[in-house]
Amino acid sequence: MKKQIFALAIGLFISLSAFSQAEKIIGKWKTFDDKDNSAKSVVHIFKSTNGKYYGKIEKLFKNPGKLCTECEGNNKDKPVLGLLIITNMTDNEGTLSGGTILDPKNGKIYYCTITYDATTDKLQVRGSLDKKGWVGRSQVWIREDS
């Protein structure tokens, strides 16, 4: 009986930890240019009423009037400022996955995984060509103070 209660307590702790990790991803995050490491944008990550997570560009540090000329479909020639770039992410034990991320620079859509690092209060954002995340690149996003 004691072992069952202990196992239940451990399971509850793990599930609550995962829940709190995903909730810490919500907020505004500063992104950086891969080439010169300059601040590029601020992305607001939020949880929608459908239970999925999304991210929208709320600030551009350079060229705020830029259009997504390389994008296709509904995003073609839309302003990058205000563009929804992270879509349909679901919480998988504290990591967001199962959705996509749009790179407005080249207009391409990638599979996405977002992990929160509690020790540094930073996000590890990985865009990849494959669902497993083997072929792609990662960025570190820093929480925006404002």
Please state the structural category: alpha+beta
Q: N-to-C terminal Cα separation, in Å?
A: 50 Å
So, CATH architecture?
Answer: Beta Barrel
CATH fold descriptor? Lipocalin
The chain-level mean pLDDT equals 88
Keywords for this entry:
Lipocalin; alpha+beta; single chain; 146 residues; 1 helix
Task: Please give a structural write-up.
The longest helix has 24 residues, at 2-25. This protein has an eight-stranded antiparallel β-barrel. The protein is built from one helix and eight strands; from the N terminus they run αββββββββ. It has a single domain (2-143), classed as Lipocalin, CATH 2.40.128.520. It is an alpha+beta fold and 146 residues long. The model is unreliable at 6-19 (pLDDT under 50). A hairpin with a 4-residue loop joins β6 (108-117) and β7 (122-128). It has one helix spanning 2-25; strands spanning 27-32, 39-47, 53-60, 84-92, 95-103, 108-117, 122-128, 136-143.
Question: Outline of this structure?
Answer:
By secondary structure, the protein is of the alpha+beta class. The chain has one helix and eight strands, in the order H-E-E-E-E-E-E-E-E.
Protein topology:
Elements: H1 2-25, E1 27-32, E2 39-47, E3 53-60, E4 84-92, E5 95-103, E6 108-117, E7 122-128, E8 136-143
